[in-house]
Specification:
The chain is an all-alpha fold and 335 residues long. It folds into two domains: 98 residues; 208 residues, Orthogonal Bundle (Hypothetical protein af1432). Helices cover 63% and strands 0% of the residues. The chain is built from 14 helices and no strands. Helix 4 runs antiparallel to helix 5, helix 4 runs antiparallel to helix 13 and helix 5 packs across helix 9. The chain is elongated and about 105 Å long. The relative contact order is 0.08.
């Protein structure tokens, strides 16, 4: 706004110094009027047009050298033309601004509804075991934090953008949605699973992924669903190739799943489950360090350790944090 008024004053000065309104320089006044109307709407544009018309009006001579004044009809018509231009440009500016605002609000509403549905479905699935639902919220925050910090590394700057960070945050709660297909006697078993039971437990990855793949077939260009499938199917793959369901190794594992793997294991270690007691933040960090290059992508482990204070704070916000024990079991990493 200030720029537009400054530009009008500058043009007025140029017109006066170059001889008055007999030159073509008064036509430059359309520029600040158009800027004001397009950026601030028709009413601000109209006011600016009227002021600009006065600047080119009764006090601006027709010819400064000959001291000839303008006829009144000249500057009155100029104000009329300026105002008409401002109203037309401002009208379309206001219209498209409203359209854009409505579209943003609708997209925001759709995103909020989608997120609410995801959380409702996942919490419904998790109601079968002793999780409180805070797990999915913490994991989502940790995934957002890790993705945001990975983005600062040159290697990922062209891959991780705002949309990626937002979507990995939204889809991360779906990582264990396949557990709805696991029988209660396995899901709720308080002790160590047998080999057969563990093999059945591992199918929660493919159950969830296959369900989401059916949806992806109907919406093939959805980055949201693509990330959801990757996270659901591959978050138990390990960097050294010893994970499941496909035994992928290294960068063959999707980045979203590698991020999810660390977030999920950290939260699982810190949380009380039917088969274990929680352990401390420090002990969890020790396990994650030891698993760097084995279960986890070493670079993501580095990022995790760089922001471990923030991750610890995320977990502290959960009022349901239980007690701490000093040892972990292998099953903690498998689930």
């Amino acid at each position: 706004m200030l720029f537009s008024y400054f530009l009008s004053l500058f043009i007025t000065t140029v017109v006066y110094l170059t001889g008055g309104t007999t030159s073509s320089y008064p036509n430059f006044m359309y520029i600040p009027i158009a800027i004001m109307a397009s950026t601030h709407g028709k009413w601000h544009g109209l006011v600016h047009a009227f002021i600009s018309g006065l600047l080119m009006g009764p006090f601006m001579p027709l010819d400064t050298a000959l001291a000839i004044s303008q006829a009144s009809i000249n500057w009155i018509m100029r104000i009329f033309i300026y105002s008409t231009i401002a109203l037309v440009i401002g009208f379309f500016s206001d219209y498209y601004h409203r359209e854009y605002k409505d579209r943003v609000n609708k997209e925001k509403e759709i995103a909020e509804t989608k997120t609410a549905m995801i959380y409702s479905l996942v919490k419904l699935a998790e109601s079968r075991d002793d999780n409180t639902g805070a797990h999915i919220e913490r994991v989502a925050q940790i995934c957002r934090l890790l993705a945001s910090n990975l983005r600062r590394r040159k290697k990922y700057q062209n891959y991780i953008d705002d949309d990626y960070i937002e979507k990995i945050t939204q889809v991360s709660p779906l990582h264990d949605i396949g557990k709805v297909g696991i029988p209660d006697h396995i899901l709720l078993k308080p002790g160590r699973l047998s080999v057969e039971e563990y093999e059945l437990m591992k199918t929660h990855t493919t159950i969830g992924a296959n369900t989401l793949l059916e949806v992806l077939e109907k919406f093939p260009n959805s980055r949201f669903l693509e990330l959801a499938v990757s996270i659901t199917n591959f978050h138990h793959e390990k960097w050294d190739g010893t994970g499941y369901p496909q035994g992928l190794a290294g960068t063959a594992i999707p980045l979203s799943a590698r991020i999810m793997a660390i977030a999920d294991v950290y939260d699982a270690l810190r949380s009380k489950r039917v088969y274990k007691e929680p352990i401390s933040h420090e002990e969890s960090l020790k396990i994650i360090r030891e698993e760097s290059g084995k279960a986890f992508d070493p670079e993501i482990v580095e990022v995790f350790l760089e922001c471990e204070d923030q991750i610890k704070e995320i977990f502290k916000q959960d009022e349901n944090l239980g007690g701490v024990v000093n040892q972990s079991s292998p099953q903690q990493l498998n689930y």
